[in-house]
Design a protein that fits this description.
Structural class: alpha+beta
Bound molecules: fe (ii) ion
Helix content: 10-25%
CATH architecture of the largest domain: Sandwich
CATH class of the largest domain: Mainly Beta
CATH topology of the largest domain: Protocatechuate 3,4-Dioxygenase, subunit A
Number of helices: 2
Number of strands: 9
Amino acid sequence: METRSERGSRRVFLIASLSGGVAWAAALVSGARAAMACGGEGAVTPPQTEGPYFKPNSPARASLIEPGMVGTRLVVEGSVLTADCKPVPRALLDFWQADAGGRYDNAGQRLRGHQLTDDAGHYRLETVVPAQYPGRTRHIHVKVQAPGRPALTTQLYFPGESANQRDGIFDPKLVMKVRDVEGGKIGAFDFVLRGG
Ligand SMILES: [Fe+2]
């Protein structure tokens, strides 16, 4: 049984295949919107530990790609939503992650950046796939904050990783929908913030 999101991913892949080697960015523009995560059971995005590598004052940028950066290109995109499915414009998302070698930049701001959702509550991050590192499966850290609200600190995970089951804090509710496209991958995830 083919789901709506699977059809969406196939369309993205087709666009990527037709438009050649630099297609990944174009494909991502057309990108697969994650199915709305709100409204179902367990809808609110669970928090996770910040871990030891957060740094304040990340640069404002939607792309963490820098010249010479190695690794599989990855776009993560989706929406920030309230628990009753309303998009949250101008929500702050602050991402930080390990590089393709499993290292964090603790001296500078490499692979760190923040952005605001657009008027429709959408975000789009351009980055590379982080490597796993000792004790942790592959993941991306993020803080998500609606205007005037407390920040949600959590992490995003990748599907099909054997290390997921060996990671003590892995949560299947935080697994992105990840699709291969020419030149990289697209991850989709909608954050659903607790109301009140
Ligand atoms: Fe980490």
